[in-house]
Amino acid sequence: MKRSTLKALLVIFLTLSAASVLPLYTSHATPVEEERTIPILTYAKNGRFNCVAKLKPNLLYNQTTLAPEEGVFYMRIVEYVMVDFTYTFTLSQPANITIAEELNTTLTSPAGWAKTNLTTPGSVLSFDGIDDCVYVPASRNVFPPSDPTTVILRVKPTRLGSTWGGIIDQGRNYRDNFWLLEHATEDKYTFGLGNGTDFWEQTTPPLSLNTWYHLALTFSSANVTLYVDGSYIDSWNHGLTWQRASRPLTIGCLNDATGFGKADIDEVRIYNHSLSAAEIANDHDGKVTTDGLTLWLRLDGDAEDESGNGNNGEIHGAAWVIDGNINAELGKSLQHFTGKTANFTLGLTLNLTAYTGTIRTINEETGTTSQDYSLIVTPQIRTIAETGERHIEDTFEPALAFKAQYRTQKGDIYALEGLKHEDQSTLNSTETIYHPEVMTQRYASYALAIPSFAALAITTGVFISTRPTKPRKTEEEEVERFREIIVDIAEKPLQEGARTTVLMKTFNDLAKVAEELMKPILTEEVPPTYPNEKPQRVFYVIDGQMTYKYTGA
After folding, report:
1. Dmax over Cα atoms in the chain, in whole Å?
2. Containing domain of residue 19, as a range?
């Protein structure tokens, strides 16, 4: 085959090979399988603190309450602060949502110490035993009581064993419904029910003054059961045909507005069924059961019914007081929702000056003197949402900080931080996607590249093998190429020990050696050996153990 034809084939196959490189690279740069992240749903958490300060009589604002946007919370005129926290959880898809929450508080100082898990002071209603009461009209839909009925309240006796004072009553003087009273001669409370003519009563275990108790009573047509501080006490068969009538509910006095009780009362709840022992124990720990609630008076700044049934109470004379020993962790119960939104609200009242004693004690223990402090209120909210096969479990801990700051340019003030909190998340799914078209592209690139490169290799080999060979040069021609650096010697080099002497043929040869070695030419005149002879001049070039020598003619 002519070399011109081979050159043409080389150009063709080289072009094809180069053209096959791009699809070969592209098909291998594209993955056959890839993992793709796909958003399944989004969810958001929103926490809002609403704070209102209850003010002492003052000239500055000339009002009884103050919101943060209305002015500065000055320590000397703030009596307490009412806090409402609202949590909202929203999803992009319907779900079964469960929320559990609890309220924690931490007291911190610029000096570096911190006291956690403080009992939060809360507001309660104090009844003076003279003319105070809360009145829930009989027209409300909680009456008459159901069979069975569970009654729960927190109470701190401030009088015992002196009169029949009403604590909670719906018919003691009428011998029907149920009641809970101070005992007139013993340091106990008495409770009972009636059939319209006769009544049955039993007493609690002995109580102590100024001590908070969690009391739970279940009334039914068969028996009455008592729990104190979450623990089962006893159950009694009353043997009466229980009469249930539509009458007002009174707290702090008897149902006919006589027999006023003397106690601090908080968290009154009535259920339309019997709560289990476990539910009552949980209630004592702050985990409120909401199923079946017909009345829920938190008594935390008002007598509004939180059950949603509209059974609001009317307060007559009873005073709001701050008590730091009441269990104010109001939201430990599980709450269940269905849909795209879940929310709840919890409220508490803070007497910020109530912490000064704690601060003073810790300062004495630590040797610090800082008056400033921060009270950090943190709802810890755990949300679980189930939607189809998807499971979301999330924790949200918004924090509200009350900072007590003394001797600022504004004066002694409470500064608030952290009123609004938001967070949004996305639940993603990862799936593997297979691209068969990429494998098709790879196979196609192989089909083009393999023949092209093979043909190029074969053609190149043939082209090289047919290249004309150049005639080899003779030895004389090769020697002639290096004539400028070749020197002639007169005889075979003489080896004397470690030194070698080379006798050069001409002075020009010795000069070439000196030039290549960059050595000087040395010379000496040797006296004649015989009379009538002239002296002889000898030339040397010495390079280490080598001596190059030329003897003149």
Report:
1. 180
2. 3-32+436-465
